[in-house]
Amino acid sequence: MAALNIPGVKFVNPKSEVNHSYGIYGHFNTGKTHLMADAAMYYMDKGMSVIYVITPEEDPMATLEKFDLGQIAVQVEDGKEFESLMGKIKGKVDVCILDSIKGMNRMAMDKAIGKDRYPAESKDWGPAHDAFSSLAGVWKRATPISIFVCPADRSSDSFTNPNQKTPNLITCDLPGKMAAGIQGLVSHIGYLTAERNSKTGQREREVTFVPEKHLLSCARSLTREMTESIKLDLGKEGNWAKIMEAFDEHRG
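The structure corresponding to this sequence follows.
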């Protein structure tokens, strides 16, 4: 295909400017932080630089100590500090792991409508959404690979079920339309579970990127849609590699 040549216009190079973005969400005690630490080790073993960003109210320290990742972890206290950090790492760090995007949203709301407030009126939601989108964009543009983690919740999907009053969708624990809308921010969203097998008594962990009507999940970079969950080894390393291998199998 012939390239356009317009003086003064810079065209993008999709191959060099693509952002590999992932989101993992799940209920408490499903191993989200352990999987994020495993992801950090995966990329560091490949010689890539990684930063692990901790938002207020999150406490991944025990897991980070277990993996000896204290040297890559940074804690931020507010949106201004977060934006400053993203500016400092842009072009210098390969991977940014955000723990958590729920905490980033709290920082965005503090900035937009005041600290320790929740959108109480309809006029609050616009600034809250804008502030979240702004911080999310700053985070995603900072590094070639972006990964967030988030607790899970149930939400009403105002798009597919506009009159639904009862929460009908398992999503990230975010307020309002951001809960389902977060799917537009990253290319891959996986729902992590760790259920006890009634026969063996053992907890079995898996993550699904399979599109489902009742939960938020997707893997838009794949040429072949995933149809099965990815089985993970509870408490062991190498699980992020399993996810990447499963993605590779569904490309090309």
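The chain has a mean pLDDT of 84.
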